[in-house]
Amino acid sequence: MKLKNYLLFGLAAATMTASFQACKPKGAGSAVSGDAAQRTYIPPGQHDEFYNFVSGGFSGQMSVYGLPSGRLFRVIPVFSVDPEKGWGFSEETKPMLQTSHGFVPWDDLHHIEASFTDGMPDGKWMFANSNNTPRLARINLQTFRTDEIIEIPNTGGNHCSPFTTENSEYVIAATRFSVPPDGEGDVPIDSYKENFKGHISFVSVDKQTGEFDISFQLKTPGLNFDLSSAGKGVSNGWLFMSCYNSEQAHTLLEVNSSKNDKDFILAINWKKAEEYIKAGKGKKQNNVRYAHNKWDEHTHTAKHEIKTEVTVLDVTEFEDLAYLIPCPKSPHGTDVSPTGEFIVGSGKLAALIPVFSFDKLQKAISAKDFESELYDGIPVVKYESALHGEVQKPGLGPLHTEFDDKGNAYTSFFVSSEVVKWNINTLEILDRQPTFYSVGHLMVAGGNAKKPFGKYLVAYNKITKDRFLPTGPELCHSAQLFDISGDKMELLLDFPTIGEPHYAQALPADLIKERSLQIYDINANKHPHKTNGESEARVERNGNIVRVYMTTIRSHLTPDVIEGIQLGDEVYFHVTNLEQDWDMPHGFAIKGANNSELLIMPGETTTLKWVPDRVGIFPFYCTDFCSALHQEMTGYARVSAQGSNVPVKYYTGEKTE
Amino acid sequence: MKLKNYLLFGLAAATMTASFQACKPKGAGSAVSGDAAQRTYIPPGQHDEFYNFVSGGFSGQMSVYGLPSGRLFRVIPVFSVDPEKGWGFSEETKPMLQTSHGFVPWDDLHHIEASFTDGMPDGKWMFANSNNTPRLARINLQTFRTDEIIEIPNTGGNHCSPFTTENSEYVIAATRFSVPPDGEGDVPIDSYKENFKGHISFVSVDKQTGEFDISFQLKTPGLNFDLSSAGKGVSNGWLFMSCYNSEQAHTLLEVNSSKNDKDFILAINWKKAEEYIKAGKGKKQNNVRYAHNKWDEHTHTAKHEIKTEVTVLDVTEFEDLAYLIPCPKSPHGTDVSPTGEFIVGSGKLAALIPVFSFDKLQKAISAKDFESELYDGIPVVKYESALHGEVQKPGLGPLHTEFDDKGNAYTSFFVSSEVVKWNINTLEILDRQPTFYSVGHLMVAGGNAKKPFGKYLVAYNKITKDRFLPTGPELCHSAQLFDISGDKMELLLDFPTIGEPHYAQALPADLIKERSLQIYDINANKHPHKTNGESEARVERNGNIVRVYMTTIRSHLTPDVIEGIQLGDEVYFHVTNLEQDWDMPHGFAIKGANNSELLIMPGETTTLKWVPDRVGIFPFYCTDFCSALHQEMTGYARVSAQGSNVPVKYYTGEKTE
């Protein structure tokens, strides 16, 4: 009967997107506030109220919008090369995308979460997870660049990530696909239950520098961790993670992992785990290999390092680390309320939303009010014992829940394509608004913090179809901005997004503006190939390595004429931008180079590698329009045959060397 | 004195950006229309009025915005890989970015221009130029994808491009940096005047298929071609190109190419050149090597080919092909009015704008009203003989001119940071509006066509600084939308842009909407590794080549469990998306792959190559949220040691092979 139920609902859920489209409302005029234009318009010269940091999903990037205007200010490369920023093409940035199995130019970024201090975003960093090649990243909100990436061992699909604890003591990275631990991999896939394990990584964040360290991993039986929230306030010290494949299926999950009426939320007492680690209970695992890449702000260069050890604690060896809370059905989002007291489980195939009480959970654990043990001895708390209550008939396909500053929760419904507002205490439904179409994640400004900012909610929709002018078979995804300051949600604006927006954060503009850097101090630039002013511009040959120490300032490149390069040479253009004025980048490109461009911010040194493949004259130029005489900011390099007697020679305007 | 003049003005021009900032107006409230919010707001469910196709500059991409909302609907990869589209990562798309010197993942796209029929955009294609690695591209407006890229031989910096003739008979590609012809390159750079040549390529466009062919090249003395406009209407058959380095300087152009009070516009009689080519006057040059890459719409795969011949006509060998028109001073834009009668030269260091008359030019040529011959015998028409008149005191640093539907011209001024409206006939200045900051290109909807659409003008500004919320040292560029339907220009909106917007086009929405494709017909898919439905999904080994014929449809990948892969294998996942519903793409990623993802549009087959580097279990999954059971759309691949006896085995839900 369970299977039959599933098939009926599952089939409906899986195909509902299509059938929903057929009967979609025409336009959306009725829900739109009459003065929405005024409320989303930012007059030229004025600034938006919030920064909206939005994950890019399969693009591997993170984008930055203004709210309420919905304007895109920046796409930040995180796990992918980016030709708009030159990220991953210069010699300095390439190491950032190295992994234990080489250079990965494109990956799948899922969620982002802000760094927190006392449960509130502190404006220092954004954290992001790479799903396919399991990694965590830290983005610096002074520079809007990725400062650090760490690979996560023993993990398959780092989806349940990068959710942080109340003071960002740890960023969590947990396996969506259980896999055999690293080094124990050549086993039959149908031995899943015996050989496949889950790992939950606690990656510490240095309070000052932000630097990552995999403090420890918790090893679990084979489970699929989907999403998580750390406790806060009363529940600080705990972590809650949705597990959607309680069946431990390993094939045709569409059917086989959707059989049970209830799956689980796994509650982890991470403070207790910390104690065990301090007491030396963890085991060193030395057969792992993972990349740890850091941006060096002094040399303006990324360093790539491989690490080979991690400390692992097996939760099944301890009685008081992990508890399973039954949760109907295939839970996706697991979201903790601002006070930390309530844990909302969104079972994507469930017809209700269970809300668990942290207080009741603790009492149930103390009283050992368990219904069973599963998966090598993890206690299963009785559903009713942990339950605060259920939101009845909320909609179809609940996915995620966010919170406002007035005691309300907002849940996204993929199948019935709507956002539903309900009261956290009374569980009463207060409002519902359709979304166009099939909302996935949603975000309230500060909606995962102790004191949400409220005011705006954004629905990030999975299906776009006719919402914007068509662009062929491949369409942007779509976001919808709602004003939630009144009793009813008011739709204000549709705006397109980059990649696939999974989770997002909105931070008040002032929190970031105050920290934002305008230039890099050229005196602090310690790049090993920096050129200290035009008088030091030069060309140096060492064997077949030719280094061009070049400067750029309005409106010339120095040197601008270079001879004496030969076939077989490796040429490095180390270009230093001498400008110390905000928004005065220069670019550099030379014909014949494969990674053919650079972008250099004021005060930075950046390097282009060129291995000429033919004899000739190769023009180079500034690629970023900088001044009235930008078009004149050019030069030529001459490449001669190997063994040619053309000497190294360069012109710097006044002098020829 | 000339030099002194230059130094005064040039220094002012070069540094004015900085000083201008110091005295910039606070905000821009006064110029903004009171109901700008209403006039730029597109209510949810409704569509924008125009598509705005905008070049991405150094990003190598082209972006598509809606007007008047300024919303970004799509970034189209053209000369760069793009992690949002998977462009340049799949086996099918990689060949599109091959050049004669290998794979170029990032390049510098400068201008775009629409395909024209009888002087009006026909909605079929956009053309784009790559500046650094000289190339032309054709973007298909049914699919919003790049369908073709051709490399341009004998060329250095393909900046003066891709401007097309009245019926897009030809797209022009001309050298910004003269260089020695291919194969004659190892010469001293200071032999510029003798050895460096300009080449202007006439690339024909097949009226039906759009296919490119380098019909012929015109070889000229060493000149810098900056921008061009083809004649239209009365001047159809001619081409006008700005030349900013009449001094033929090769070093410190900031000073040395800015000495002359007048440089030139080169007028080319291309119909005459066509006749000479037909008469066999061109010379075959066989020492060139250039890539010609085409997307095959049947196999969904790019083909890369190298060509080795081009036909060249030396303009100095003919009396009636090319004429120089003196133009003050360092001309940048050269723009032809809607009737074709007027040619506007924007000398970026000039204090006036000369407007030339095509009729007077023809009369001067007939009368041989020349002031001299230059550069091996090219006649120089007398300035006054070709001049319609001068716009006096227009502003500082004129760059580009566009036209409206009422006989007006609009010129951008970089240094004085404004757009100036003037009457084409009377040359009277009618209005001026400040831009924030330092406008480069500008665009009127249809402003380069025979019958401009008018209504909107967009200024694409080079400096952003404080216009939007700050994002560290690296900022987006900025556009400003003006309503030009009244007597005075009205500023409506600031919106951020992707990369560096050089030229742009705006086309009425209906022209594109009608042609837009929603899905790829799966029955027409002739990919050699297509899978015709789930029953054909399979794994095949041939030596160390393993091919996975995979299908994807809501909500499963078939096969979803694969064993028998060994170290040393090359694994190809050929993934066919069986969906035939608009906006139902699927993604694919597998842990351990370097090009780790695919995006597959409905009806397409796309290939990911994977060379495993270690033994283990590697999860794979759909990367583009597609359905309520998307999270269940996963599988596992097992990699064993080389020589292992684990047989090739795969599961397709019901059956195991």
Automatic annotation (TrEMBL), chains A, B:
Its main location: other. Transmembrane segments: none annotated. PROSITE patterns: PROKAR_LIPOPROTEIN. Gene3D superfamilies: Cupredoxins - blue copper proteins, YVTN repeat-like/Quinoprotein amine dehydrogenase. It is found in: Cell envelope. InterPro entries: Cupredoxin, N2O_reductase_N, Nitrous_oxide_Rdtase_Sec-dep, Nos_propeller, NosZ/Cyto_c_oxidase_sub2, WD40/YVTN_repeat-like_dom_sf. One of its GO terms (cellular component) is cell envelope. One of its GO terms (molecular function) is metal ion binding. Residues 1-22 form the signal peptide. It comes from the Bacteria. Keywords: Copper, Metal-binding, Signal. It holds the Pfam family nos_propeller. This is Nitrous-oxide reductase.
